[in-house]
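Milestone 3.1: sequence recovery, worked example.
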């Protein structure tokens, strides 16, 4: 009778000792579009707008608006992070160099871009798994150009579906409010 108690206690300890997921976006590390390490700790204290992007989507022209947001608010502690993904309709180039060349040549994108990544389901990269766990499955990307707003403290503030453009009043209002907040 003592043995099952000892086994149960060990099992509880093992579960309790399992490493927890990130508590903040700034604990995440990805790779840049050209394969270099991209620790999100480098953005600590900034407001982030994280967007899953695609080169061949009806929403692709949103790159222009995303770059305008970047240009307008960067000096106030804001950055857009693009996460290219082929999860929805396989609407992204296969190669990071092609993605980068397209974004720079077509939309003059200068904001940080990660390597091509999975953004939905169990195979999603850590940021997207964390966002789903934090905000719920109903706030996960349903298509390309879904947007997550992260505060200066690294916590998720809101999610915006693809149809909400970078210049939509509700998004701009949320960004300016997050920038004004002391994190």
């Amino acid at each position: 009778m003592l043995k099952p108690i000892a086994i149960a206690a060990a099992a509880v300890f093992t579960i309790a000792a399992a490493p927890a997921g990130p508590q903040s976006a700034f604990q995440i590390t990805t790779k840049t579009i050209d394969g270099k390490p991209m620790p999100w700790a480098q953005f600590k204290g900034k407001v982030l707008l994280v967007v899953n992007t695609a080169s061949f989507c009806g929403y692709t022209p949103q790159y222009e608006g995303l770059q305008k947001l970047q240009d307008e608010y960067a000096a106030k502690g804001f950055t857009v992070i693009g996460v290219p993904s082929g999860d929805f309709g396989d609407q992204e180039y296969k190669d990071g160099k092609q993605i980068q060349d397209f974004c720079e040549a077509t939309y003059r994108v200068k904001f940080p871009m990660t390597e091509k990544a999975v953004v939905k389901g169990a195979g999603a990269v850590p940021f997207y798994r964390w966002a789903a766990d934090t905000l719920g499955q109903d706030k996960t990307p349903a298509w390309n150009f879904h947007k997550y707003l992260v505060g200066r403290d690294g916590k998720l503030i809101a999610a915006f579906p693809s149809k909400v453009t970078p210049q939509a009043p509700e998004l701009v209002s949320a960004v300016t409010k997050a920038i004004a907040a002391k994190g």
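Residues 4-19 have pLDDT under 50 and may be disordered. The first strand starts at residue 29 and ends at 31.
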